[in-house]
Specification:
Number of strands: 0
Bound molecules: heme C
Oligomer: single chain
Radius of gyration: 25 Å
Number of domains: 2
Strand content: under 5%
Length: about 120
């Protein structure tokens, strides 16, 4: 390796290192930590889709397992009032953990349902 190519090699390494440092610095911008939006939760836009996708296969109005109907606002609201919606999705002791036989809802979904309850569990 003559002097010239040696310098080129060093220049190349410095370039690669500085590029990768740049890339690393920007990583948070490229892949932002996904935040969970819990403001102004809506039954129609936020809560009902979660319930529909994760619960209604067993808790629809036609063939409700355990007699628990979660289809439609007023049916779901009964389980807000008796505390069982919150208890079951949080896997609190004294409640049947839901969804039965499946993974716990994502923490964002749980936060969003709880926020909706705290915001008055309205039919909005
Ligand atoms: C695979 C079927 C299945 C799915 C999916 C399911 N459940 Fe259930 N759920 C049941 C059965 C069966 C019961 C009655 C027996 C029991 O309480 O364990 C029940 C009971 C309940 C109860 C009454 C619990 C209590 O402590 O009295 C609530 C509330 C409930 N489910 C909510 C939900 C919610 C919310 C979801 C979705 C996140 C869900 N379930 C998904 C089968 C299911």
């Amino acid at each position: 390796m003559n002097l010239k190519s040696h310098h080129l090699w060093i220049a190349g390494m410095v370039l690669i290192l500085s590029l990768s440092k740049c890339y690393y610095d920007n990583e948070e911008d490229l892949y932002p930590v996904v935040e969970c939006n819990t403001t102004n939760m809506s039954y129609a836009n936020n809560v009902n889709p979660i319930i529909t996708n994760n619960c209604l296969s067993c808790h629809n109005a036609q063939f409700p397992q355990g007699g628990v109907v979660l289809e439609g606002y007023s049916n779901l609201h009964n389980f807000v009032i008796n505390g069982k919606l919150k208890g079951s999705i949080q896997h609190d002791s004294g409640f049947s953990p839901m969804p039965q036989g499946a993974a716990k809802l994502s923490s964002c979904f749980i936060q969003q349902i709880n926020a909706w309850i705290d915001q008055g569990a309205q039919n909005n």
